[in-house]
Amino acid sequence: MPRRREFRDPIIRISADRIRFPDLCPVCCRKAAAHSIVAAQPGSQWQGARDAYWSRRASGPSHGIIRTFSVPVCNSHFISDDSEWRGRSLCMLMNGIMVAVLLFATFVAGGSYWQGRGVPSWYAYLLTLFMIMAIGSGLMMRGQPLQRAINIIGFDSEVRYVWLDLKNREYREMFLSENRVNAELVSWIVTT
Ligand SMILES: [Zn+2]
Prior knowledge:
The chain is α+β, with helices and mostly antiparallel strands. It folds into 2 domains: 3-79 and 145-191, no CATH class; 81-141. It has helices at residues 81-114, 121-141, 145-149, 169-178; strands at 3-15, 34-40, 46-48, 67-73, 150-155, 161-166, 184-191. Strand 5 (150-155) and strand 6 (161-166) form a beta hairpin. It is elongated. The chain binds zinc ion. Zinc ion binds at residues 25, 27-28, 30, 73-74, 76-77.
């Protein structure tokens, strides 16, 4: 079922091949000194306000493609794909180990409880530690400042147009003036 999604701050609709990113960092608006890759997978298909009448093909040519954009950034917000990937996989590994430890500890604590000796005090410490780690990895998985500054809302069914939510207002103004011919502000989209 097509659904309408509204945005309080209008988002940008732009031809994916014609994007010109300003020579500023999207996070802090300082002069850019490097390039970082922002990637998105056109998964579920999106249709913009103007394209709402388009009929969607069952499986578009876009399926499974990862679309990347090379974005100028400052030195402090530069991220290499490598370090991010390493950080995330380490995070997942640690969580896996922690879940296994917690499961084992729950058996031990449960056994002690059923034998009438109560829940051991170390179990509470372990639970607290687990919670801290879960919150920490949640923050990490939420993505880097760059991903939040350039939020890729979606693509049309042909992956010719992309909808971007740029968080930094100053950067957004610069982006719009840089892409005056191609960019268009929309305040709602239709998702299928
Ligand atoms: Zn920056």
